[in-house]
C-alpha cells in the first residue's frame, strides 16, 4: 500500500487521527491512535510519513495494532514487523482476516489497555467496533463520515451482510457513554457523537 498520510491530527492528548485518499478504492481511509498508559494503540493503520511517526514515537512506544475488519489490514504487517507488536482482532474479525494472522484475539468483555471489542454483525464481514473507557468509539465500515456536509451515513446496503442487522447492532452502542466517534472512512466526530449516531439510526429506522 503506497499511499501515505503526511501528518496526523491531535484531537486530544490521548486521541490522534490521520487519513489519506486511497485511489484504489476511491475513498478516504482513516486511522485512529489511542494513547494509553503504556503507549500507542493504533486501529486500522494507515501508512504515515516517517517524520510524523518519529514525532508520535517520541511521545510513547507503539504497543498494539487493532483491526475493525478483515478489509483494514492496511499497514499492519509492516508495523508489526518493524515494532514487534501484536496485531489484535475480535474473534469474527480474525476469521475474516486472510491477509495476515492476528497474534491476539480480544474476546467480548475483555479489556486491552482499557479498550473493549464489540461485534457489529450485519455490516462488513467480521465488523468490530472498539470502545475506549476514555469515551471514544472507533468504527470500521458500519458508519462512514466522508462528506461532513452531509453528516454520518450508514454503510450502503449493497455492502452490508444484512443492512437491518447492521442498524440493530449499532443501536446497541447507544447504551455506552461515548463523546467521540472515529471511522475507517471519514472525519472524526468530536462532540455529541452518541446523539448524532442516535439521530442517524432514528432517521433510518
- Helix tally? 5
Helix content: 10-25%
- Here the CATH topology equals Metallo-beta-lactamase, Chain A
Briefly note the structural class of the backbone.
Answer: alpha/beta
CATH architecture label? 4-Layer Sandwich
Description:
With 205 residues, the chain is α/β, with parallel strands linked by helices. 22% of the residues lie in helices and 28% in strands. It is built from five helices and 13 strands. The protein has helices at residues 50-59, 76-83, 91-96, 163-172, 193-204; strands at residues 9-10, 15-22, 27-36, 39-43, 62-66, 87-89, 104-105, 115-119, 128-132, 136-139, 143-144, 153-154, 180-183. It is globular.
Summary, kept brief:
This protein is of the alpha/beta class and 205 residues long. The protein is built from 5 helices and 13 strands.
Task: Set down the secondary structure blueprint.
Blueprint: E1 9-10, E2 15-22, E3 27-36, E4 39-43, H1 50-59, E5 62-66, H2 76-83, E6 87-89, H3 91-96, E7 104-105, E8 115-119, E9 128-132, E10 136-139, E11 143-144, E12 153-154, H4 163-172, E13 180-183, H5 193-204
Parallel strand pairs: 4-5, 5-6, 6-7, 10-13
Antiparallel strand pairs: 1-2, 2-3, 3-4, 8-9, 9-10, 11-12
Amino acid at each position: 500500500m503506497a499511499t501515505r498520510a503526511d501528518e496526523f491530527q491531535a484531537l486530544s492528548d490521548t486521541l490522534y487521527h490521520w487519513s489519506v485518499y486511497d485511489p484504489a478504492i476511491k475513498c478516504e481511509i482513516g486511522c485512529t491512535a489511542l494513547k494509553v498508559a503504556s503507549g500507542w494503540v493504533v486501529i486500522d493503520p494507515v501508512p504515515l510519513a516517517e517524520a510524523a511517526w518519529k514525532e508520535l514515537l517520541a511521545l510513547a512506544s507503539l504497543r498494539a495494532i487493532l483491526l475493525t475488519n478483515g478489509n483494514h489490514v492496511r499497514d499492519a504487517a509492516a508495523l508489526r514487523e518493524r515494532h514487534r507488536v501484536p496485531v489484535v482482532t475480535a474473534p469474527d474479525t480474525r476469521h475474516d482476516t486472510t491477509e495476515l494472522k492476528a497474534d491476539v484475539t480480544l474476546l467480548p468483555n475483555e479489556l486491552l489497555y482499557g479498550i473493549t471489542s464489540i461485534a457489529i454483525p450485519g455490516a462488513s464481514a467480521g465488523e468490530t467496533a472498539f470502545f475506549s473507557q476514555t469515551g471514544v468509539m472507533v468504527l470500521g465500515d458500519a458508519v462512514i463520515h466522508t462528506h461532513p456536509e452531509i453528516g454520518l451515513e450508514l454503510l450502503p446496503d449493497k455492502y452490508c451482510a444484512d443492512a437491518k442487522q447492521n442498524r440493530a447492532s449499532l443501536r446497541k452502542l447507544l447504551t455506552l457513554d461515548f463523546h467521540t466517534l472515529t471511522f475507517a472512512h471519514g472525519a472524526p466526530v468530536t462532540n455529541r457523537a452518541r446523539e448524532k449516531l442516535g439521530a442517524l439510526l432514528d432517521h433510518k429506522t
